[in-house]
Amino acid sequence: DWTTGNVIEEQVTAIRSLVGDKRAICGLSGGVDSAVAAALVARAIGDQLTCVYVDHGLMRKGETEQVEKDFVAATGVKLVVVDAEERFLTALKGVSDPEEKRKIIGREFIRVFEQAQAEIIADEGPAVEFLVQGTLYPDVVESGGGTGTANIKSHHNVGGLPEDLEFKLIEPLRKLFKDEVRMVGQELGLPDEIVQRQPFPGPGLGIRIVGEVTKERLDLLRDADAIAREELTAAGLDRDIWQCPVVLLADVRSVGVQGDGRTYGHPIVLRPVSSEDAMTADWSRLPYEVLAKISTRITNEVADVNRVVLDVTSKPPGTIEWE
Ligand code: XMP
Asked: Where in the numbering of this chain does the GMPS ATP-PPase domain appear (predicted)?
């Protein structure tokens, strides 16, 4: 019988006997899959697991804290946080091309992660032989199949591992679908903010700024995004939409009037979509009052933004993200 309890028990037993007295490491992305995989392995082998979280500075407001505090509180996991914001921003300096950004972020991510890994391996403890990955059943199918739109963009967390990888992989979610992973996570005591999290791209806000990525622009977008998320949650719409990217058109300016003067600011795009699997999507018909509230708040509260626009494009032809 399939129950979350059975899945957990089975995996815990299997992981324990596989790992023995060796150690494992796991990269946390802030997403559901890696969090649940890590929590499951932590349940099995406790502090023989070390988690690594690379803070690339491209996260949304509060997300790093969620991993640092809430996740650790719920699992008791041993966590190494690498603050790599400056490194990523330096690498991204002057870059506007979306694919270029993705490549840089993916490359830096692996470098920072490998360095943290090397430091963990170099300490006195037992050998680190295992790497935990939050691979789901659809990932297995998608990366093997290689059909359709999945290959249009280079997803840096799929197939981005070094070729001379010496770890043995532990993929405890390999047979599960997303909703099952959420149930397992819930059973493991993870907070809703992590378990019910909507999809968020690995390259983070780096691909939601059309134009060069800078600290100032990231801060601006973080503020706008936080407002949109707050209002969508307050309106009880989190479960109705798949996700709502908030995009900063950093290379665009338009004329506005705010207070008693002319402004020349940036537009923010709201991209709420409904979807089953992100392969196709429809733009969400959000209530006008909610859109109005978000628009008013963003233009009032976020300096340098004087216009909020709504993306009413399906996928296809538009992808969910703008880059
Ligand atoms: P697109 O923009 O291709 O997005 O319609 C489909 C889904 O994938 C997410 N996405 C990513 N997730 N790494 C990820 O982990 C990535 O590089 C990436 N690019 C897009 C996107 O948020 C949407 O849910």
From this structure: 2-197
Q: How far is CA 148 from CA 5, 143, 145, 152, 316, in A?
A: 36, 11, 9, 8, 12
Atom 14 (ligand 1): residue with closest C-alpha?
201
Question: Which range of residues forms the domain containing residue 20?
Answer: 4-195
- The answer to whether 55 is annotated as binding is no
Average pLDDT over residues 66-93: 96
pLDDT in tens, 30-59: 899 999 999 999 999 999 999 999 999 999
Same domain, 35 and 162: yes
Cα–Cα distances (Å) from 201 to 32, 84, 244, in that order, read 12, 18, 12
234-243: average pLDDT: 96
- Going by alpha carbons, the residue nearest to atom 6 of ligand 1 is 278
**Do both 90 and 174 map to the same domain?**
yes
122 annotated binding-site participant:
no
Flag whether pLDDT at 151 surpasses 50. Answer: no
Ligand 1 pocket list (CB less than 6 A): 102, 153, 155-157, 199, 201-203, 243, 278, 315, 319-321
199 C-alpha to ligand 1 centroid (Å): 8
Q: What is the CATH number of the domain that holds 256?
A: 3.30.300.10
Confirm whether the ipTM is greater than 0.95: yes
Asked if residue 32 belongs to a known ligand binding site, the reply is yes
**Which DSSP symbol is given to 208?**
S
User: Are 45 and 148 members of one domain?
Assistant: yes
Q: What is the pLDDT of residue 159?
A: 41
Query: Are residue 215 and residue 177 in the same domain, yes or no?
Result: no
Specify the residue with its C-alpha closest to ligand 1, atom 10.
Answer: 201
Tell me the backbone φ, ψ of residue 307, rounded to 5 degrees.
Answer: -155, 140
Q: DSSP for 10-36, please give it.
A: HHHHHHHHHHTT-EEEEEE-SSHHHHH
